[in-house]
Amino acid sequence: MRALYFIFLFFAFGDITAQTVSGLVIEKDTGLPLPFANVFVNNTTQGIATDAEGKFNISGDFPSQIELVASFVGYVTEVKMISFEGKSEVKVTFELSFNESNLTEIELKSKRDKSWERNLKTFEEVFLALPDDPYKSQIEILNPWVIDFEKVKVKNGKNYLKASAQEPIHILNDALGYDITYYLEDFRVLRDGSRFYGQVFYEAMESNSLATSSRWKEARQANYYGSLKHLNQSILLNTPDSSDFALFKTKPAPIDGFRSNDFLQELNKTIIPIRKDSILRRPLGDGTFRIFLQGTLEVHHLKKEWTNDYYTTIYHPISWLQAPEGFYDVDRNGVLLNPTQLVLSGYLGRRRVARALPLDFVPTTDFKIEELIADEVIMSRSSQLNRLREKVWLTLSKPYFYPGETAWIGGQMLYQDAFLADSLSRVVHVDLITEDSGIIQSATFPIQQGKISGALVLPKEMKPGDYVIRAYTHWNRNFPMDDQFLAPFVVMEEGYIPEMEKEALEVFSDAIMVKADYTLSDSLNYRVMDLKLDFLDGFENPIDGEFVLSITDADQVVEMNQGIRLEHAIEWLDEGLPETFQSSLSHPVEYGISLKGKFTPENKRQGLIQPITIVRGDLEDYGQVMTDSLGYFWATGLSYQDTAQIAVAAMNEKLRPFGSVELESLGKPELGVALPKLTYRKVAISSKDYFLDTSGDYILLEEFVKEETRERETMAERNYGYGAPDREVNEEQLLTLSPYAINARLGLNGSTIGNYNFGQKTGVPLLIIDGTQYPFLSSDDFWNILESYTYPELKSIKVYTFSAPIFGMAGYAGVIMIQTRDGFKTGPKIETKFNSEGFQFFSIPGFTAFPEFPKSPPSDRYLTKKPTIYWDPLAETTDGVFEVKVKVPYGIDRLRIKVEGRSLDGELIDQVIQIEK
């Protein structure tokens, strides 16, 4: 969630002198004093409890105006703005009203459910710390039960999730060493942002451990340096530009709206360096200042390290500041007086309560940020590893199967850090396991943009009984076994159905709502259901998502609670690694079918570090990898089905094979855990009118279309069968845009088009010109060929990066596909016939071929009854709507529609809909 972070802090530091504020706290209705009431200066460590007579006295170096807060359990908190106006002492009386809406702790806890827990997770991510912040594990709300949530619908406005607290929220921040009391006034989360504000009192924690006290001190200093307060002070005092920040004025992007992520390329074009003294600031006469800010200010935090995901080769955080009114006001200490005047994004927009310091915090002048040992960017090894975790979630077309049936599989990948999704696995391994015999069937399927589709064809001779389906990635093997997917898989004896103790289907009130609308019409051989599914969020707004859709005969298929619902699977996202967890990451990420092996040279002079060439067929796929210092190599990215002959050899400078290679098995993870098992009983089917999902009975044909009216596409129009590119410029853009704008649109930065393969060196992209591939190019040859064309000579340039796996290993570094204008210019001819002499050949299994579910069975044949009527594991909405025509066999009276997946911003979709004719 992208959050706009606002904390309202009405606290103005002016001319600071010793001041005293004293007074009385009484009950409004009776006038009786309230002893032990809390009185504090908002957002500071300065506060006190009233005495037995309700009196208080607070002295300190206060600014000319402060926000004073009085609170007492069971009463409405009162806030007063106090102005000293040159006086050394101010007296004030608080009259607190009894809070009649206050609920008891028992009443509050009775309202908590899964929906509340999900909302609390959202609240903590917006309020406390972002999920990837190392401080998140060190800050805790001690009384979360005081928080309530409601969804607010706004007429002609944006709906939002609102949080309120009947009592002050008690927070323990062990990262900075503060015991925090937060009086929440407003909290709301919208789809495109969030905001919260309230009054807060900080109490510095004490520790007998010198190491803990030092850690707190250093962490406070680290969070001050690089903060908005520090930046504002730097602007006010005009500190040297090179010390802590570099400032840039951003200019509009090129005409086509694209900016590259190459910092040096954008410098002095879309980002212009500016000096701090060029920013206009004026005193307002009351100890405050106005800083004028036009457009967007880009801030580089020079003395902090950060894994930057905006610019390449930049390793410090970046923030962006916008002042909607053209200015914002601060006090002389740099405290922002009205946060509505400033919109923060980037690094400063990430800061939450976990990193907030009291406004009276004063850094030590002798502190050197270079000496930090506990800054926010220093993650523990387990935290770093946790970001790299992924987990498979699968669901099945039915809850149980019979021997000889096809079990269709769909699913999604879950990522601890969604930003790394495109750099992680693109291959999933599926095993069917029994406790006695181990693995009895295995399959391998591609992961396409985080989605999974496959099927297991069960042998007719398969023994009925209890099995387990396991799914994992090769990368999973670096992490605990809990990161693998395990679920019961029931194979029934024909003539029987399973029966479990009936459980009420849990409805997740916070999940995306799915509404079904349909019409049925008769045809000669089947009925046609025009099905429309509307996906609505909690505010009944349309929302887009990706999901698995199954439609079954509700009378033939009995539901079973297998414990594999996505709602339970995503709980894994909340489970971090133990601090003691270590991994050498010895199992690489797979981007396709992989080879693991060892090279042995003919003699010692040849050396163990050599390029290994891998070829499938007559250069149908190919690539090169380097061995390590021991001669071992890892190759991945091949893409094909069934088994193929793969040629492997080391090549010398004369392109002749030498030495020998030996391939090793990738192996499989050990079971090592108790296998899940369902408790059910077999019940004989009273009627013989039941059917099986046998894939062989289906014939997959296209719907009838008159051949003479069908419009055929050329191979070039279909991108030579490789599908849609990730980025593209067309003929008109090639003629009108500048080379800079074209390169920005295509993402051509330097010598690569983006390395999306975790920890791998990818070489140059695959070049395809008018359908002809140019394999094994050196970097110089690649760019010489590419630069031999001028843009007016070309019809289109298409770039594949995230979708490059379809090209196999050849597209491991991405693909640039060029189509010239009607063959205007022909590039150099390259001999592509493969000379296999001297290569060793290995039979390597590829992706598992499986029968696709026949969504369009033959139109000219009677459609027989089947348990599974429709199956789509890759379903997607368009503007919150999914529409499909489903062919329903005659004789089916009830349909069960099951929808399971997630919205594009991660919310749960989980609904079962019954349809009766």
TrEMBL record:
What's the superkingdom here?
A: Bacteria
Annotated coiled-coil positions are none
Q: Does the keyword Signal apply?
A: yes
Cite the entry's keywords alphabetically.
Signal
Record's keyword annotation contains Signal = yes
Instruction: Extract the signal peptide range.
Output: 1-18
What the entry lists under SUPFAM superfamilies is as follows: Carboxypeptidase regulatory domain-like
Annotated protein name in UniProt:
CarboxypepD_reg-like domain-containing protein
